[in-house]
Automatic annotation (TrEMBL):
<dbReference type="InterPro" id="IPR050966">
    <property type="entry name" value="Glutamyl_endopeptidase"/>
</dbReference>
<dbReference type="GO" id="GO:0006508">
    <property type="term" value="P:proteolysis"/>
</dbReference>
<keyword id="KW-0964">Secreted</keyword>
<feature type="signal peptide">
    <location>
        <begin position="1"/>
        <end position="23"/>
    </location>
</feature>
<feature type="compositionally biased region" description="Basic residues">
    <location>
        <begin position="239"/>
        <end position="248"/>
    </location>
</feature>
<dbReference type="InterPro" id="IPR018114">
    <property type="entry name" value="TRYPSIN_HIS"/>
</dbReference>
<comment type="similarity">
    <text>Belongs to the peptidase S1 family.</text>
</comment>
<dbReference type="InterPro" id="IPR009003">
    <property type="entry name" value="Peptidase_S1_PA"/>
</dbReference>
<dbReference type="GO" id="GO:0004252">
    <property type="term" value="F:serine-type endopeptidase activity"/>
</dbReference>
<feature type="domain" description="Peptidase S1">
    <location>
        <begin position="144"/>
        <end position="185"/>
    </location>
</feature>
<keyword id="KW-0721">Serine protease homolog</keyword>
<keyword id="KW-0325">Glycoprotein</keyword>
<dbReference type="GO" id="GO:0005576">
    <property type="term" value="C:extracellular region"/>
</dbReference>
<dbReference type="InterPro" id="IPR001254">
    <property type="entry name" value="Trypsin_dom"/>
</dbReference>
<feature type="region of interest" description="Disordered">
    <location>
        <begin position="193"/>
        <end position="261"/>
    </location>
</feature>
<dbReference type="Pfam" id="PF00089">
    <property type="entry name" value="Trypsin"/>
</dbReference>
<feature type="compositionally biased region" description="Basic and acidic residues">
    <location>
        <begin position="228"/>
        <end position="238"/>
    </location>
</feature>
Length: 424
């Protein structure tokens, strides 16, 4: 057989390349695209008044005795009645009154079953271990822009994340210790980092620029700020000896300040209350706060992902207000070490104060070319966990993941109408 003419060979090579690229792109899209879930419906059954709380509990820097991933493998799966009991909730209003709302769950069998992760790995104490890998977002050019601007400070000493124009998602233990509400919850406030200082408000004075004017090269689009997720343009503790970066000069000349807003009502699932969900309290360490006034800040949507470890990067991100860096927003990212359907173990360095931060990842939207960040969990913090149910305690950094059921409940709290929460 003689040589194949180039005029015949070239189209074949081009066609093969096109097919290979298309196959690669499809695989890429599958791996990097937000999955769409059909979510069960959480509906209100009945609301009854309760006596006012004592507001006598004190904040806990570390939780102890919670049942972790290994411990939970020995527990039976909860029934529908159990789940409805755990997802029923208390609401505390700003005037100190309290109600209890029971719920029903519909369409649970239509949700794809999550596979149980049975892998195990050795873990060390990871509050901050070895080299501190956290980044201080001290320059207001970044700390008051998306996605960092979604992070808020809770007056009880925790962090939270905006999930609607006037709703904040945080950890339940920042509000309630399992037996009573914390002292200070009756006057609960949420702090949002101010974009400009009082001087030069909207003008050209220090801390402000002319109204509507923008520095050359400044970007508003969240997709153009992706370098922040990888640590660029932020201040890593211990780097840059001998010279001051722009972000450090900014931190020294303009200390971060907050705009505080009162909380109208607080909602906590009964699954968090001690004696209700035996051994499962860690799974329900989340709460939603409704603000009296909506801050003019962009919020972050919720998302559901079946496995973080199976993602190509397997990496999570979150920002909060760690106690050891007062007033500063602290960002970090790391890989997930182990996961179950309700919990994430990870090695992200953190200090008390970051509890309640929104854990997020970034994937492509289905059928679109743009990328979007969504919250897939709530950072619960450094915990002492009962590993096997035998009383032996080990310490981990734990995040509570957003499941389809939790998505349905949080979405219902935010919208007040479960019909708006059927698909993620």
């Amino acid at each position: 057989m003689g040589p194949i003419p180039p005029c015949v060979l070239l189209p074949v090579v081009v066609l093969a390349a096109v097919v290979a690229v298309a196959t690669e792109e499809n695989a890429f899209d599958d791996d990097y695209t937000w999955p769409q879930w059909k979510v069960p419906l959480v509906r209100k059954r009945r609301t009854v008044p309760l006596s006012s709380p004592n507001f006598s509990a004190h904040p806990q820097l570390e939780l102890s005795g919670t049942c972790g991933i290994e411990c939970q493998r020995h527990l039976p799966s909860p029934s529908l009645d159990d789940l409805e009991h755990y997802l029923s909730y208390e609401t505390v209003y700003e005037n100190g009154t309290r109600t209890y709302t029971s719920v029903s769950v519909q369409g649970l069998n239509e949700v794809t079953t999550w596979s149980r992760n049975t892998s195990s790995s050795s873990r060390n104490k990871r509050e901050v271990y070895g080299t501190d890998t956290r980044f201080t977002i001290s320059d207001k050019q970044f700390s008051t822009k998306y996605p960092f601007s979604t992070s808020v400070k809770i007056s009880t000493g925790c962090s939270g994340v905006l999930v609607s124009p006037r709703h904040v998602l945080t950890a339940a233990h920042c509000i309630h210790d399992g037996k009573d509400y914390l002292d200070g919850v009756q006057k609960l406030r949420v702090g949002i980092l101010k974009e400009k200082s009082r001087r030069g408000k909207g003008g050209k004075g220090r801390g402000g620029r002319g109204k509507g004017k923008r520095r050359k090269g400044e970007k508003d689009n969240e997709e153009e700020q992706e370098k922040d997720d990888n640590g660029a343009n932020v201040d890593r503790k211990g780097n840059g000896k001998g010279r001051k970066s722009r972000s450090r000069r900014s931190a020294e000349s303009e200390k971060p300040s907050f705009r505080w807003t009162r909380v109208k009502k607080t909602q906590v699932p009964k699954g968090w209350f001690k004696g209700v969900a035996d051994g499962l309290a860690a799974d329900y360490d989340y709460a939603v706060l409704e603000l009296k006034k909506a801050p003019k800040v962009k919020y972050m949507d919720l998302g559901v992902i079946p496995s973080v470890k199976k993602l190509p990067a397997g990496r999570i991100h979150f920002s909060g207000f760690d106690d050891d860096r007062p007033g500063n927003l602290v960002y970090r990212f790391c890989s997930v070490s182990e996961e179950s359907k309700d919990l994430l173990y990870q090695y992200c360095d953190a200090k008390p104060g970051s509890s309640g931060s929104g854990v997020y990842i970034r994937l492509k939207e289905s059928g679109k070319k743009n990328w979007k960040r969504k919250i897939i969990g709530i950072f619960s913090g450094h915990q002492w966990v009962d590993v096997n149910g035998d009383g032996m305690q080990q310490d981990y950094n734990v995040a509570v993941r957003i499941t389809p059921l939790k998505y349905a409940q949080i979405c219902y709290w935010v919208h007040g109408d479960s019909s708006e929460c059927q698909v993620t």
